Amino acid sequence: MPGDPEGLPRHLSPSQQARNVRAFSAVVAKFREALLEGPEALAFARDVVGAFADSGMSGGPTRSEVWSLIAERRAPQYAQEFFDSRWAIFEHYGAIQPYLAKKHQQRYALHPAVGPATLVHERLRRHRGIDELVALLDETRALIGQPTRDRATIEFNIMFCRQMLTVYAIHLERLVAVASIRELADEQREHNHPGLSTRVKQLNEEVSDFFPGDHALDHQAVALVAAEQHYQQGLTAAGQRVIEQGGRTLDFEVLSAEEYLEAARHAPLALLGQFGADLVVDPPSVWLDAGALMEAVEDFAPYVRVRRRPPMPQVPPEPDPAQRMGEARSRERSRQEHLAERVLLESDQADLTDELRHSRWRSAARLLADLIGLDADPYAPYRLRISIELIVDRIGWVTYLHPVHLHRQTTEPPEQLRHRRHEERHEGL
After folding, report:
1. How would you classify residue 128: left for phi > 0, otherwise alpha for psi between -120 and 50, otherwise beta?
2. Mean pLDDT for the chain?
């Protein structure tokens, strides 16, 4: 999500983000194992918002137009089947609605709540609600500054912030006791909000200034400060354990590459100078002695560029186009003659009407064209007879045709005919 507020870190592991989504969705979940914990669901929502915004089509885009826009402009990491399934879920919950209330409506509009929901889910995946807690503190300070102050709402907001900070502190204490240092490092990235302590302190001062003598509200504000200090103690304990245990084991993966880069740019020089003090390394040495240097000098010869004639290109011989056409024609005529011999296997004449009637259009047309080609060849010993009678079949594949009969002429063998035709062709050339 671009533009994170106040530069909050975003480098959480996918498993940590999935746990945040599960905990957040448990508040409104109806069934178990009904969540999409991967990043594809949020990516689909972002792509749909962008496609509806960029469509610019009067009356709203169709579903196929939305998918085309996503595929062309956003390079989705999910297939169209995932898009179709998520589209059906959005339609079921009213996130995507027909543009007009008509039957068979193919154009759609997007509910405006989808965009903010995407932002909220993105923040909760990465920061576990710290942004929402800070926003509630800012909202409470804004309520205090209004001329007509709603005391009940202010007290409820302060109490809720205190409860959430207490829950965060207990959670951090548990992780310090049982979690690994990498889990603690991920947890610190979620809770790293530099403006939280300042906001709590300012809220406490404003309660004292605007509500003098209100001991109940002042007690809630003081309890909020104590809860925030408890929370900061948990963060400090988690950070100390990460530094101590990670330093002893020399585990450089407890911090992200961006955090190392930030330290290199802004950390004090004295602190950076301590890096690597406990590392054991061999001193650098030059792997070259005097004897090796003398041998290299003696073996050195100036480079002389020799121009050599390039090799002759090897052009593969190409077959004669006319020869290829003749071979293709011979193969086609051989196939047609084999077809005729198959039809005339038992007799010198055959009725092909039933075979054509029971064939599909494409097969019947191909068979009839092959037989007409044989009949047109004066050297082929086959004759085709097509009757005038018309047969109409409204149920079969071939709806109408004429009776077709094929005859074999036995005056001259087919081999001799082909040989004579070959000789006449060469004499003509």
Report:
1. left
2. 79
